[in-house]
Amino acid sequence: MHSSTSSSEPPAAPAGRGRWPAAALAAVILFFACEQALWRSPTWLRFCARYAPPGAGDPVITTARIRLLPERAAAPPVLLLGSSQVREGLACAAFEAALPGRPCANLAVGGGAPLDVLYVARRTAAVWPRRVVVTGVFPKVLHMAPKAAFTDRATVACLLRGGAWRRMDAAAWLDIGYGLLGNVSETLRDREALRALSQTVGGHRRRAWRLELPAQPDRLLAGEPPRPDRYFDTRVGVVDFDTRPGTFTAVQEEALETVIRRETAAGNAMVVVDFPTRPGYETTLPPETVIHYRQFRGRLARRADITLVRPEHLPPLDSSDFLDFTHLSSEGRGKVSRRLAEIVRAVAVSELGGAAPHPPDPPRASPK
Predict the structure, then answer these.
(1) Taking a C-beta distance cutoff of 8 angstroms, is the pair 109, 52 a contact?
(2) Is residue 213 domain-resident?
(3) pLDDT by residue (tens digit) across 283-298?
């Protein structure tokens, strides 16, 4: 016999349980609101740009410098993109001297490749929609894997078009997934770089916040002397089989093609530099890599929508102009920067308009 007090209603939930979803949602909203405010703060961005160490801190350096770009200039500015060859080998001062009134920003990253160039070019388009884009290539950058911190939907599109998705393992897909997740949160994207920033500042956070500590050097090799002759003597002819066509080669080529297509569609000038390397570098490459790069360079030379700058278009360089096989010394940096700035000036005047005194003819390499 049922009791008169029985009921079919479910038992009441413990007090407070219903508040958890609302509290969690409020916490998420508060986190993203604070994060948006943080990454819009010029003080925070200057702090990151000044103290993040090149290399490990490249993602946060790139984020900070993009967000600190000056307002749109009267004339299209110059944007330098690429690997550490570009970051450490091209000086913005030479471009700003050759093109008065056009600001220059060097946003190249260590170990950068065309996929990273595509990422940075996309993120800077809103601030500098009209610009001259200068990027450098050499054999190694065409065979590198994507970086999680420089991954977005354009990266995935290149993976699909380049066919790499068929050969990628689980670890590679996890990196891509983590990179895409980083697009939701700038803090998450730059997590490892922020850790490197914290380690660099150490126990001097207050002095660093007041910008009293010395800034990190822009160039990783700035304070290092050139490698001794014996360094090269032991490496010339020794093949590095890590630099050869692989899973991501077609993807990197597709990324560069995408950059060129987007920049030219926007009416921007695109300069691609076949970056000079020290004599003997080619002997360290597998034969298939040498053949691939020559074919790739030939395809670039036949294009009418870019300016290809070959080493022969730059001043003659000798061994003293290099720190190692692929990085310029301060002397080489000055020579290449000044000549390339003249070429870019001519391209800017020819394709984007403006005035410049006696610009040299831009080189248009013909296929060999």
Answers:
(1) no
(2) no
(3) 999 999 999 999 999 9
